[in-house]
Specification:
The chain is mainly β. Helix content is about 5%, strand content about 40%.
Length: about 500
């Protein structure tokens, strides 16, 4: 209860906490006892967001109005569930002990605040379970009115500062809630099974010294996100806000990591690959989503990585940052449409030096990819002036590129994503972004240059189906990016043949 009342004071509302009846100086003639005298409420249902079971939800508030000329006495305000209710209520400054209180009154044409808090019970269920109650108001005239209270509780498997020192499988059908980071020791392999959900507490990370294998499937991808399940405000879940947790870090000694069918989003960073040499593959990322980070979505330093059929979008840093190494991207959609203040990087930036240290760029190969964003130049390559003989090998093959057009032997069969085209940048995608609700879709607009212009031989060799399992040859010609366009008959009639 102490925590509950501190919430009230934090809201700057001076309340009177009175254990018994509230004191009044009105005469009895000033009150109505008519059964017709009813209360009005600012909400008939107080609905909480989904909350992790056993953990308190944020406080909800509603108003009770007396629109009558005369005052109304309330001899009883109580929770239908009584002392066993999962909800806790403060009415006009008085806490309902054991779910019940008496002696309340509201002057004519006046109102009072009601504060509701709750802790959903543990239900031993895989999916959220609803908890409901009613807050009942009884007037002196015998009128009974109720406000419905509702919340969904999600059971979790807690992982507290877990250090994995031997081969381990995570396969629970309940979400895992990760506190104080999840660390995979050198020599150990962490396997994350299909459909697993990992909810990370703020600043928690997945740190891999050994090996990570994420084995999602098309119908049951692996999810990595923050553990705040509620809304920041109406229609705006915390889950769409970046920096809700840390990210996934592969240290220098980590190799052989495979991530397939994963949705990793709304962290401080996405995947970070530390320097480890290019003799062995450090990371293979396929059929996945990296979306909405306050820093870089994918950062690789002197590593060998392969990324295919993957969406890498919206970063306050860069969507992709490469410092040297051996890097291959096939059929990827890389787009920076970061919607938050505080700066936004570019879709792609690559280097062969860092602070005077040569980092040979053995390969940065992009094939059948879309690389775009809000600005007129989303691709930045930096060849070292100091180390002019250092490797700086990059190539763009049959890609859609949001950068000023120029002749370059490293660019083959590619198109320029500029305002000279019918659609460009964010217009390449459909449906249109909903920036108010922070909803982004990266399916293709039928008028995009990316439609039907991918290299079919590359497609056949790597990904004849897109990230969603859609055949890339159903309409005869594959599209660039990780999503094959799916169009109506009317839209299809306008496609190039």
């Amino acid at each position: 209860m102490k925590r509950f009342f501190s919430t009230l004071w934090a809201l700057g509302l001076a309340m009177w906490v009175v254990p018994g009846a509230l004191v009044s100086c009105m005469s009895d003639d000033d009150y109505t006892t008519s059964p017709q005298a009813r209360l009005a409420f600012s909400a008939d249902t107080v609905a909480f967001d989904t909350v992790i079971s056993g953990q308190p939800a944020s406080t909800r508030t509603f108003m009770v109005y007396n629109r009558n000329e005369e005052a109304i006495r309330l001899p009883e305000v109580s929770l239908a569930g009584g002392a066993e209710s999962a909800f806790r209520v403060n009415v006009d400054g008085a806490f309902l002990e054991n779910g019940s209180g008496s002696g309340f009154e509201i002057a004519g044409k006046d109102s009072m605040y009601v504060f509701v808090e709750m802790t959903p019970p543990v239900n031993h269920a895989d999916e959220p379970v609803e908890t409901k109650d009613e807050l009942v108001f009884v007037t002196e005239g015998g009128t009974r009115q109720a406000v419905v209270l509702s919340a969904f509780g999600q059971d979790v498997e807690p992982l507290n500062a877990l250090f994995i020192s031997r081969d381990t499988l995570l396969s629970s059908s309940k979400p895992y809630q990760v506190f104080d980071s999840l660390v995979v020791a050198s020599g150990a392999t962490l396997t994350i099974g299909e459909g697993v959900r990992l909810y990370f507490h703020p600043d928690s990370r997945l740190i891999v010294h050994g090996t990570l294998r994420v084995e999602g499937t098309p119908g049951r991808p692996v999810l990595m996100r923050g553990d705040r399940l509620g809304n920041m405000f109406t229609d705006q879940p915390y889950d769409r806000i970046p920096a809700q947790w840390g990210g996934v870090e592969f240290t220098a000694e980590s190799f052989g990591n495979v991530i397939s069918y994963a949705d990793i989003h709304s962290g401080t960073f996405g995947l970070r690959c530390d320097s480890s040499g290019t003799e062995r593959e450090k990371l293979r990322l396929e059929n996945s989503i990296l979306h909405n980070f306050s820093g870089d979505a994918l950062y690789a330093r002197m590593s060998r990585i392969f990324v295919g059929n993957t969406q890498i979008t919206n970063a306050g840093g860069n969507c992709v940052t490469l410092y040297g190494g051996d890097n291959t991207f096939i059929h990827c959609t890389i787009g920076n449409f970061y919607a938050f203040t505080g700066g936004r990087g570019v879709a792609l930036e690559f280097f062969n030096e860092d602070s005077g240290i040569p980092l040979p760029l053995q390969r940065a190969d992009f094939a059948n990819c879309i690389i775009t964003g809000y600005s007129s130049d989303e691709i930045m390559g930096h060849a070292s002036e100091r180390y002019r003989d250092e490797l700086f090998n990059y190539s763009f093959r049959h890609c859609l590129l949001d950068t000023p057009a120029y002749e370059d032997e490293h660019i083959v069969g590619s198109l320029w994503d500029s305002e000279e085209n019918e659609v460009c940048r964010d217009e390449n995608f459909s449906p249109e972004f909903d920036l108010d609700r922070l909803l982004f879709s990266f399916g293709l607009n039928a008028a995009s240059q990316a439609v039907g212009t991918a290299d079919p031989e590359i497609t056949r060799a790597y990904y004849p189906s897109d990230r969603n399992g859609q055949s890339r040859f159903a309409d005869g010609a594959p599209d660039m990016g990780c999503y094959e366009g799916v169009f109506t008959d009317e839209e299809s009639g306008n496609l190039p043949h």
